[in-house]
Specification:
8-stranded mixed sheet, 3-stranded mixed sheet, Amidase signature (AS) enzymes, alpha+beta, single chain
Amino acid sequence: MSDIAFASATELAAMIQRREISAVELLKTYLDRIDQYNGALNAIVVDVRDEALVHAQAADAALAAGKAVGPLHGVPMTVKESYNLAGTPTTWGNPDWKDNIAGEDAESVKKLKAAGAIVFGKTNVPLSLADFQSYNEIYGTTNNPYNHERIPGGSSGGSAAALAAGLTGLETGSDIGGSIRNPAHFCGVFGHKSTHNLLWIRGHAPPGDIRSKPDISVIGPLARSAADLDTALRTMAGPDEIMARGYQLNLPELGDRCLSDLIVAVWSDDEMCQVDGEVRARVEAVADACRAAGAQVDDQARPTFSSEHSHETYQHLLQATMASRMPDADYESLKQYVESLDPTDESDTAKVLRAQVSSFKDWGHSNELRHHLRWQWHEFFKDYDVLLTPMMPTAAFPHDHRVFSERTIQVNNEARPYFEQVFWAGLTGVAYLPSTVIPTGLNGEGLPIGVQIVGPEYSDLITIAVASALEAEVFRFTPPPAYS
């Protein structure tokens, strides 16, 4: 049954509707694989299989009765631990929140269930969703299914690892600094960071019914095929109840256009965050595939701002947003520490700390700069359909649980600062742009490498469609040998 376990959600839904397999049989296939493999992988950390079996039985009964079914009817799926799933803990990996039991599902989970998905568990995250690795004191460490000594990414690391290992049919994560995209890259699956506020984020929150729209942060799907991203995005997208009074969803699509009709920009490396030669080569390989298909490809195209300016703006807004999640006592302690810093200290660390406790005036200045970036990207995408970039500078690296200040990564055999690798996520995330990560196959060590496809705001279905066209060429999910 391993072939079924690695099928796309789209294929699984079609099999159920053709009566080739029942929803119950499919769910049990995944549950058997979880019992066999999840102990060592530790991707799925909350299990609601009994409830899911009841829903799977109901799905089979509905199909037998000829009732209308949704596009995900009977497909078993998991969701990131940071989503509310009624009756289960939502901890964000924080031991202080281990008893925070959700009273109802997140809005996006409700939509997925309404489309027929059977949610049977939740997947692991780092503490406060704030790391490229996925480990915490509550649930432990998630490993990469291609090599257990390596990280799966974060913060949606459990999501990507479960998909790659064939333990679930579909997943949904969240992203403020690449938290959908870097796990997709490290685990060789597809992932989509949506346009900011396209998907209603309510119910993806720490304790408390938070209805605000957090800056930069979005939710979005992960999957084993681009078609699944399309289905999940269409399912979850749309305005909240207040916005729906005056807004309705009307996303542009690629339509009849093919790769040959596109103008593709390529940004394969940058001094702000240099990438390994093999990563750059994968970006260029995707560009070459576009070129071979007839697309116009420009590897010199850049927007009118500098990468340094974009990253500085992103870091200020990111750090302020992340610090807003801190417990009050920790935040007050941080403020006192920042006040003790030498006013002439312009080190990267000092800048980060000041950004974390910045005044509203300072934040407002960075916000204004961000909106200038948005308009500069808008002008850029008048000339280009999509942009190809790296997602991370390296393939999955070994687990490293030292304090952040002691961590580095090896890029082209040189030690680089650990958090430098957020650059490629922030380049597009700060300006609300959608981006889709595609797998490009395994490297010489058997580790996946992904490439990011970026488009203008609200072109989500277009970047996913480009991913689908490239998937049809050669860039497909490759199951990890130990699980297939």
